[in-house]
Specification:
283 residues, alpha/beta, Rossmann fold, eight-stranded mixed sheet, 8 strands, 45% helix, 17% strand
């Protein structure tokens, strides 16, 4: 794996650690969950054969500290961070953007707020549960997670959150099922340190986000809504598929489940590359 060039971008209220490798048109990778730029290590080199690949730690995560550690979070601010990175790394040229999970929500808002900066967005299972008919049940989950975080701490709260994102009736994963590949295990310490911030401020802000459906419908030719092939029935998959239907596109199947990026990196990178290509090149 080639070593990325690292940098730090000052933005209002934070400093953003970012990593760049490859050459060609810019592809910005937005992490989701409690992850950071390293969550893309398994796919970045493959994509860097065709693109200048940039990944970063979202504000408040890992190496991107907030000026005010207690500051509340808004999707719009995270999307503006992404826009500022595009301005830095691809000035004047619309870029391709991929986001996973909560990072996919950032990517959706980036597309609607700054369409001039975006050539194509691939949003993998954005948990925009506010679009679902059972949105109230997901609001109740977020409230339970917040209460568990306050009363018992981040690990029980994460267990509560993960259970709420499984398909009804699915058992909790066995220890063997969640064994991490070596690259993922190496970054596990930072991910664990990010959990209180993720659960306490990212989860409530992002899972209450309602996308602008009319705006997304107008921009649907630039949008791919990706769904994990093994995630049918899970809330993020349901939300992405429902959103695709509402904006008039077909959901795109991707390898694995909600974390297919980690569990199936080679297949995931190849699938993503296909959806990033210009339509004429795919025909």
């Amino acid at each position: 794996m080639s070593a990325p060039v690292t940098g730090c971008l000052r933005v209002p209220g934070a400093s953003l650690h970012h990593e760049v490798r490859g050459r060609g048109p810019l592809l910005l990778l937005i992490p989701g969950g409690a992850g950071d730029a390293a969550s893309y290590d398994g796919v970045a080199d493959a994509l860097a054969a065709e693109y200048t690949v940039a990944a970063y730690d979202p504000r408040g995560m890992s190496r991107s500290p907030l000026d005010d550690p207690g500051a509340g979070q808004r999707v719009a601010d995270h999307a503006d961070d992404a826009r500022r990175l595009l301005d830095l790394l691809s000035p004047g040229e619309p870029a391709r953007v991929f986001g996973a999970s909560s990072g996919a929500i950032t990517a959706l808002h980036l597309l609607t707020a700054h369409p001039d900066r975006v050539a194509r967005v691939v949003a993998h299972e954005p948990p925009v549960v506010e679009v679902l008919p059972d949105a109230a049940a997901h609001r109740a989950l977020v409230a339970r997670v917040q209460e568990t975080l306050r009363a018992r701490g981040p690990m029980p709260a994460m267990t509560e959150f993960a259970a709420g994102l499984r398909k009804d009736g699915d058992p909790a994963p066995s220890q063997a099922a969640v064994t991490l590949p070596p690259q993922a295990a190496a970054r596990a310490g930072r991910t664990m340190a990010n959990l209180p911030y993720f659960l306490g401020r990212i989860v409530p802000a992002f899972m209450s986000y309602a996308p602008d459906l009319h705006r997304l419908r107008d921009l649907a030719d630039r949008l791919v809504l990706a769904c994990g092939e093994d995630a049918h029935g899970e809330p993020p998959h349901r939300a992405a598929a429902f959103l695709a239907d509402r904006v008039g596109t077909a959901p795109a199947p991707f390898p694995g489940g909600h974390v297919g990026l980690t569990t199936h990196p080679e297949e995931f990178a190849a699938t993503l590359a296909g959806h990033l290509a210009d339509p004429a090149a795919r025909d």
